[in-house]
Amino acid sequence: MENLWGGALPAGYEPVEEGVWHPLDTVILPLYGSTQQIIGLIEMADPHDGLCPTEATLRPIELFAGQAASIIEMTRLVVETMRTADEEALISEIMEAATSSLDPMAIAQAVARGLRLLVPYTYMSFALVNVSRTALEQLLIVEEKEEVIVTRQATIPFEGTAIGRAFEAQRTQIYYAEQDALEAYPDLRDLRNAGLRTIMIVPMVVGGNSVGSLNVATELGRAFGFSEHLPLIQRIANLTGVSLENARLFQQVLDRENFAADINRLGMALSATLDLDAVLNLIAKESLAVFDADNAFIYLVEGDELVGAAAAGPLDGDFAGARLPIAEADALEARIVRERSALIVNNCGENGTEIAATRVAAAQSVMGVPLLREGRALGALVLTDADNPARFGANDVEKVSLFSTQAAIAIANARLVEETQQRAAHLSTLNEVGRAVSSLLNVESVLEVIYQQVQRSLSLDTFVVCLYDASIGMVSYPLIYDSGKRYQEGPDLPPPGTAIWRVIETGEPIMINRTPEELASMTVKSPLGDASRLSASLLFVPLVAGTEVIGAISAQSYSLNAYGEEHLALLSGVASQAAIAIANARLIEAERQRTTQLEALTQVSSQMTAVLDRDAIINAVLDQLGLVVDFDSVALWLREGDQLRVAAVRGFAEAQHLLGVTVDVHESQLFQDIAESRRTLCVPDVLEDARFPAAEASATRSWLGAPLISKGEVTGLLTLDKVEPHFYQPHHEQLTLAFANQVAVALENARLFEESARRTAELDRQAQRLALLNRVSQKMAQSLDIDSVLEIALDEMAQALGVDHAGALLFDFEEGVGRLRAEFPKPPIPQLAAIPLEDNPVVEHVRLAGAPLAIEDAQHDPMLEPVRPMMVGGGGPVNPDRADDRGPEHHRRPEPRLGPGAPPLRTRTGGTGADHRQPGGGRGAEQQLLRADRAAHARTRNAVRGRRGDLQHAGTGRRARLGHAADVPGARRRHLHNLLLERGQPPA
Fold it and tell me: pTM of the full predicted structure?
């Protein structure tokens, strides 16, 4: 027995007698268990006898304490045994339910049911580490209508969470809502905000490694059972971890078997096809099923770029053809190919890794693996998960590596087959092109065949052939197809800065694959073909004949990334053969054209020289010129003195209005330049020549002028127009000049022929006049009666001139009158009308001029006023010699004898008159007759002279009559004298 106070008495202690029990005294006996460990205490106070116990009296109490300790220990053992049995039964029941399934969801469901018997939780979840051990996958336990339901929740990261901390420390933690520690962990804050007050996190440890955690919580503050059953809950958690790990291992084994089966199935499927597109699509689709991903993307290496080849899943969209530079530093896909190793990016939304090429902004996890074949990266396979931020791990990398190996082999084989087939197709195309063009002799046919062959081998929407003529610095487009439609473009200057011109300048091919962004930003449309669309893929290759670049070929497609290096090589091969064929066809066409032009020029020359009609030659010139030289419009100008006149035109909109247009020679600088040089003048572009001030208002661009030279003089111009600039070349000038020379010769021949025809006609007319004069002379020589002679003269004159009326007057100057001695037609009753000679302008003109007088309008001309009464229909004074015989009723001339209603005759001439009904009707014919050949006049004069000699031997009466006629004051002689002079005969 021991004084626990250590001799020190408490304050206020009052001592008692020795051996007497003090009120403050206490007796404590220890209870020792079987291991001599104190299992309890027995406290005694206030003895009945009031005495302190002695060693003797304590001995029985110590024996009782020993017995009590044994009984307590036995009772505890029984209770613990029963409790352990119950716990074991509960654990057995829980684990039996948990181990009866290999499904993690079913295991979690069984543990949740059993754990409810120990802990009154209102919240429970499991956090299981993923395969890559990068995050915890959460399984939430929810009770609905006494049914336990397990659902997957968002993953929980290790860092910054209470669950991650317990997992890594392998230490159970109990948190209460009033603790400040909850503020440091977002997962605990979420639970507290949900109304939970007591939270316990129990790590699940298997073989010394944490595989997850068991999380329970209740709305009760410091709830009973959490700490009391902690060891049991820890055991349950660890055993649950074992079951979950076994289930996971089993699932991994099953997954491996399934994966092996998938790989075998994929290998068989891939070996069944050698089409690259089919292989790529199959790989993309199978990868979704094998790895349970949302999207799969396959890239292939092309040069220094990754090109989207195939995709599967909701985001496949327009992925095909997307391009990504391999050198792109931050792109995951480029890193995979550069580093040739698999990469995993979890929590994409937080770490900022760029995966722009796959357009997977909504992806939470991404795994990419290179497609390796013999150490060379053929491309990359990229898998994404849109929901799980920690979807992929190390196990997936191992599987995807095996998968990618199988895929790379299939892609390499398919590529090899495709390249072989493509090479064979390209060789076939080249052979077909070579065989086809070798038999063609014109450029147009060669280009058509090339277009048809290229269309079979390439994705072709637009096909352009550009030819370059270095001698004139111009390009032409003999063939343009766009979407199957043929387009026409005229020659033009080289388009600087364009791809097709760069190819012609450098002789190097160009391939362009535009991105959607580039197409969207471009505003300038294509200048060739359909200007409303933009090509996405373009190939440009040069046409090289020998060492000279003669043009370029362009193949274009509206599809993205339609062309690769193999297509560029094919088009280059086609262009090589095409250039040779075009050069040969050009030579043949040039030779054929020269031959045709020379033949046409010879034919035209023979045709024009065979025609002697000037108008026919002028029309034939422009009809035949098109056979020699091409033109859009042409004009023939002929020189007439100091003027140029348009004689013929072709190709103008208002040709009739241009005929006859004249221009002064001194105002035409073009004519002066051509006349000085006596050569052709070629203007490549009239817009650049100051001699064409109105060129902008005309469609003409090329102009060619050639002189017409006859006997050393420029007699005209031949001008040709074309709407294309720089069209006419030196050979056109030579042909046009040769043609113009032929035209000049033909026109000169026609002029000479016309002049000869005119001379012949004149000679014919002179012969007719001579015959007429001879006939008149013979008839007049047979009569010596003046009236008879005059009647003969009037009759012959009327018939020769075709007049309606004629009359002959003799002037009597002594009486001052002129008397009408004869008429045609001869009236039934001869009349002797007279006109005054004085103040008579007609008589004065005849006397003084000694030449014929023509009156255009006899009815109104004042010169005829004195003689108008003698005109037919005008009446006239009666001859004074016959007035007594005929009476007053005959003082006027009878009415016209040409029939009722005939118009009065209006024309009268000289002393011997001829009348016509129409004004001016007899002027030309009358002057021709009165101005007859002087040789015939001389013969008539000689005949009169001879006849006069005969009259000198006639009788007296006859001499008196002749003398009477001669006694007229020279009137008759002067009249005859003038008449003979007009006819070219000298007077007797």
Answer: 0.41
